[in-house]
Amino acid sequence: MNNSVIDLEQYKLDQAEKDLRSKLVDFSHRQEIQTQIGEAFYIWRNDPEIADDKYTDQDISDVTFTKFFDWFLYDFKLIDVGKSVIELFYENDSKKLSIAERSILSHWLDNLYSYFEIEHIDIGEGCRIKDIFTNEECSVNDSSSSKQLKITDIVGARPLKTGKNNYFSGVISVYPYSSKPLFLDFFKREFNEYKKTFGRNASEKEFLKNWGFLIGNYIDKILENPRFLTPGGDKFVLASANYKLTDTKKVLAKLKSIKALQEVGSGTKELTVFIWTQTNGNNILATIEIEETSLRINSHSLNSLNKAKNYIENKLKGLINHKRDFTKQLGSFIKDNSQGKIKPKKLPVGMRSKKEMDSVLSEYYNDWIDEPNKALNDKSPRDALKTKQGRKKLLAILAELENLYRHAKQRGEPYFDIERLRDKLKL
Questions:
Q1: What are phi and psi of 315, to 5 degrees?
Q2: d(Cα 413, Cα 234) in Å, to the nearest integer?
Q3: Could you give the count of Cα atoms lying within 13 Å of 206 in the half-sphere of its Cβ?
Q4: What is 313-382 written as a DSSP string?
Q5: Pairing of strands 159-162, 238-245
Q6: What pLDDT digit, counting tens, does each position of 22-67 carry?
Q7: pTM of the model
Q8: Domain ranges, residue 362
Q9: In what order do the strands lie in the sheet with 286-291?
Q10: What span, in angstroms and rounded, lies between the C-alpha atoms of 155 and 153?
Q11: Domain presence at residue 358
Q12: Number of independent structural domains in the chain
């Protein structure tokens, strides 16, 4: 009897939730809010190129706009009032809502878009997720995504609480487990910058609420751009090694006895998944999947894959037979990876030597410090130093350039020492 009552109450809340989402979107159509969408999109993309007059609505895919609009409703602070759309909606229209709608909306005010690791899946029902930054856990009801996701996937999402259930808001982004160190590395660096600006007592949740949109932009650029490396300095690839098992039961028993490995639920009876614990001391970030008589190691770099292979082959000696390795680099297979080596990129077309390239880069940055820069509100780097805000933006640009060129140097690509720019600007 009690269960029937609870289910009926949840059903009513679920219906109210659908109506509430529609009313929130309708509220956002007010002219004073709509006039700020263009500026908000520019901030969300964090990309000076979209300010170009040639950039039109046709350049924005439906998925991209859905992700942006979700952020616009819940996180973006409207320029004229300093409040989000949902906060303004609650202040202005909450009295017009039903009791159920007001209750749901009060919970939504404290929502957070973050990045989560899938810990468990109930196929056709939902999943349990864990925030990779704060370690907070929750269960999400989503029958559709539960059929598409797998254990250890990293998802960018906004769970919204409705009664006893949580539901994803809008489109979720799915990333391989191998990208986790990229998220953590960027979070650590940017959170430190956030605390320098807003005080040492600033919380992780405050950072995610105010600057969290930068994380997705950064990771998406990495996945699209092969010039980037993992935090460990390795080329970012999706790498896997496949093995045939001679005795599945013995292999499972052996893996479960290894302290450096942790078994995680797979959501199916046919698949068993293990991950290396972060305290294993082996600097290995990979997953092991056991399915019937096959074992597969998945990793984010050739270096990490080789470490994982050596570890597992040593532990499972006599129980597995290596079949083949696969490496996929941002949509294209690496052809020559027989020894785990990647050849450095050639010089740009027209450049005959590294010395010539260095000379071109030096001339470019000598001019760059005195040229208007869109990212600095059309001020030159030298002029930007005259204001506190301009100095802050310039330092961020220099830090990003330094990071890019450090990675380029490690790969044997054209490199410029950003410290020379700092000397010229007397920083």
A1: -75, -30
A2: 14
A3: 12
A4: HHHTTTTEEEEEEEEEETTEE-S--TTS--PPPPPPTT---HHHHHHHHHHHHHHHTTS-BGGGTTB-HH
A5: unpaired
A6: 899 999 999 999 999 988 888 888 754 444 444 445 556 777 888 8
A7: 0.57
A8: 354-424
A9: 261-264, 271-276, 286-291, 294-299, 238-245, 320-329, 332-333
A10: 6
A11: yes
A12: 3
